[in-house]
Design a protein that fits this description.
- This is ATPase AAA-type core domain-containing protein.
- One of its GO terms (molecular function) is ATP hydrolysis activity.
- This protein is an alpha/beta fold and about 150 residues long.
- It is built from six helices and four strands.
- Helix 6 links the parallel strand 3 and strand 4.
- Helix 1 packs parallel to helix 3.
Amino acid sequence: DVKQIVKEYCILPLGSATVHRSAPLIRSVLLAGYPDCGKRTLVDAVVAETGSVFFDLSPTNTAGKYPGKKGLNMLVHLVTKMSRILQPSVIFLDGGEKPFYKKVPKTEKEDNPKLLKKQLPKMVKAVTPDDQVLFLATSENPWMGQA
């Protein structure tokens, strides 16, 4: 059951520091499914139930807002720093496959979906067992990304 898995892997570790310390470290979770099947509702439920701070790094949300390498580095630094200070935190990515596209579709070129391709794996690996930070992504086409 999806709701049970979301409770065990997302809500319990973020909602309780004791559970977080004793449970295995879960840095990231991908919710994959058909369009409009409730993935975003589950994300909103995780954030609401845990009282987490929500950081949305979706390509449509970051498009054109952090130009150049300095802007990108500042975005990554701020999100990493603030997510640790304001724990528990959820760093969300709508379209989890988009930064890892093999070829960006013409309709999405404006959003620059590959902006965080190099930074995302580094950000996920930087989460330590002391951090109540979860990377949560949704995807309709997980096979579109490359490993």
